[in-house]
Structures are given as structure tokens and as C-alpha cells.
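Per-record layout

source: Candidatus Endobugula sertula
name: Cytochrome biogenesis protein
length: 225
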Amino acid sequence: MIEISSLLVAFSIGILGGAHCLGMCGGIIGALTVAIASSNYRQRFLMVLFYNIGRILSYCFIAWIFYLFITQLTHYFALHIMRTVAGCLLIAMGLYLANWWRGLIYLEKVGSYLWRYIQPLGQSLLPVKTPIHALMLGMIWGWLPCGLIYSALVYSATAQNSFHAVVTMLAFALGTLPTVMASGLLAERLMVLIKQTGVRQLFAVLIIGFGVWTLWHSGHSINGI
């Protein structure tokens, strides 16, 4: 059974990473709608919707592949190691979201090596003319180097099976959806809320706390052999 607390943490990571998501995906969102008349709200909505569906599918696929890779290692110690790494990354992520320490940027630099080969595939779809092309672009852009995605990915790998890992990553992706999908006045209000220092630091502390709990739980499990 999937732990509700794990899904809530993953969803919170996505919500709090919304401002970061806009910075990473804002340019692509603009490219999706640049050739569409501002009065054509339906077409604009479809383009952004299909892009996000593709992006979410990509996240879930990556989580599934990553989990299968991890399970090829010795089962117990793989779980213990992933819980330890997940706890450290959750703490790093909390520090990142609160702007206290931005070490996750180094993870993004590692992922940029793979992105060099994937990015040209996305550029070949521009300018985007149909929702299907937007879907394909989203599936490609889901591989964009992002420390928050990597943290959520490792966290999802601590699940009991591949299905739970995918659902956990889906919860994270859905958390990012409101900010990326929102437009106009709603987006402005959402960004005002997200950018409030107190709000970001509150959730950052909660995520750091859960990271500490994950580390403690990992150590308690290994000692209980």
C-alpha cells in the first residue's frame, strides 16, 4: 500500500518547486503559444496541456526505469542506500527551496551531459504546430537537467515496487502542474504566494524535517537486521 505521507511530500516538492519550474520551462511555454493568436484561448490551453501531459509521462517513465535499475542491485542494501541518498537530497532540496544553499545545481550540471544529445530532438519540433507535437516536446523536455526532478526521482526509488515509484513521481509531477499550467491573474497570484519568503521557508523546513526522518529511518532499519 502506498504511504499517503510519501505522496504528500512528493506533491509538496512539486508545488514548492513551481517557481523553479517556471524558470526552467517558461521559455518553452512561450514557444508553444508564440504563433497562436492571443484571443485563441482554446488552442493555447491545448498546447500547454499536451506539453504538460508529455512532461509528466516522461517523469513517470524515468522513475520506472530508474527503479528497475536500482532493483538490479542487492535488494536490501539498495533500498538502504537509496533511503540515505533520498534523505540527503531532501535536506539539500529544502535548503535549495529556501535559498539557504543551492548545491543541487551541481546535479543539474551532471545531467547536462545527457541533455546535449536530447535537446536537438526538441528543437526539431519548433515551432510547435499541433497538440501532438506539444506532447512530443513535453516528453523530450521531461529529461531537462533539474535538481528538483533528480531529488524527487531518488525519493521515488525508495518505494516498495515500480508501480509505487511511478505513482510517487506522478504526485511530484502533479504538484508542478498548477504553476506551469496557470496563466493570467491566477499565475500572478500563485507566484506571489510561492515567492513569499515565509511560505517557502516553512515548507522547506518541513521537507528538511522529512529528510532527517528518512535518514533516521534508514539507519534504524540497518541496525535492526
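summary: The mean pLDDT is 82. The chain has one domain: 4-218.
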